[in-house]
């Protein structure tokens, strides 16, 4: 069973979202998603200052098994990317909810958070797969 931290919000497409002190939100893929993908070999991240809409494919995670699109769980501006992943994509596998984060977004519409899942709701999504 995957670790699903209660303090995070989740998208059906297996991204997690964490609010930061500056009002931005850090986004990564869940432990469940990285387990399905297997060992990461490359992560293509969005550009800082890109404006994205919720549901847009904004990044790609490539593993030994497959390449998978990563979707923006919120609309807004990309304000940071995890440059550590350029040299160490395996951080997504070893620390999906920490050092393996993908990007930060400054939301343009925080009400979109209401459409994301809590930990219990995300567990139900996994159970149905």
UniProtKB/TrEMBL annotation:
Gene3D superfamilies found in the cross-reference section: 2.40.50.100
A cellular component term, taken from the record's GO annotations: glycine cleavage complex
CDD domains associated with the record: GCS_H (cd06848)
Domain (Lipoyl-binding) ranges: 24-106
GO BP annotation list: glycine decarboxylation via glycine cleavage system; protein lipoylation
Function: The glycine cleavage system catalyzes the degradation of glycine. The H protein shuttles the methylamine group of glycine from the P protein to the T protein.
Name of the protein this chain belongs to: Glycine cleavage system H protein
Source species: Paraferrimonas haliotis
Taxonomic placement: Bacteria, Pseudomonadati, Pseudomonadota, Gammaproteobacteria, Alteromonadales
Gene of this entry: gcvH
């Amino acid at each position: 069973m995957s670790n699903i931290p209660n303090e995070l919000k989740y998208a059906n497409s297996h991204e997690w979202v964490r609010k930061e002190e500056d009002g931005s939100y850090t986004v990564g893929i869940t432990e469940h998603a990285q387990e399905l993908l297997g060992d990461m070999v490359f992560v293509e991240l969005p550009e800082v200052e890109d404006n994205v809409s919720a549901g847009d494919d904004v990044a790609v995670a490539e593993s030994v098994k497959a390449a998978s699109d990563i979707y923006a769980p919120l609309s807004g501006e990309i304000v940071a990317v995890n440059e550590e992943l350029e040299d160490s994509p395996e951080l997504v596998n070893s620390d999906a909810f920490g050092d393996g984060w993908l990007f930060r977004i400054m939301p343009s519409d925080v009400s979109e958070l209401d459409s994301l899942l809590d930990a219990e709701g995300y567990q139900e999504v996994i159970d149905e797969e």
